[in-house]
Design goal:
Shape: elongated
Number of helices: 3
Number of strands: 0
Helix content: 40-55%
């Protein structure tokens, strides 16, 4: 080790499990919950009473379709993820 590499690391794990305290995290959680709700509704519509099994098998596709539905439907705009600089739709 050279003389100029004598820095001590002060990294701690306090608060690592805490979510960030900003609105981006809330937007992500709102979008995720909306996608899951729409995906579960689609699974119920497609599989009937056996929807939990169907949802487990096709979760990725159903969630992707739900995200696309939110992105293109004006009535679901409040659950979209915002990019930087966009105004929040209420």
């Amino acid at each position: 080790m050279r003389e100029d590499e004598s820095e001590n690391c002060t990294l701690t794990f306090d608060g690592v499990q805490e979510p960030p305290h900003n609105y981006t995290w809330q937007d992500v959680m709102r979008h995720s919950n909306a996608c899951e709700m729409l995906a579960r509704q689609a699974a119920l519509k497609e599989a009937g009473p056996d929807w939990p099994t169907y949802f487990a098998k096709h979760r990725a596709r159903l969630m992707n379709e739900a995200g696309q539905l939110i992105a293109r439907t004006p009535g679901l705009a409040r659950w979209r993820l915002r990019s930087d600089g966009e105004q929040k739709v209420s």
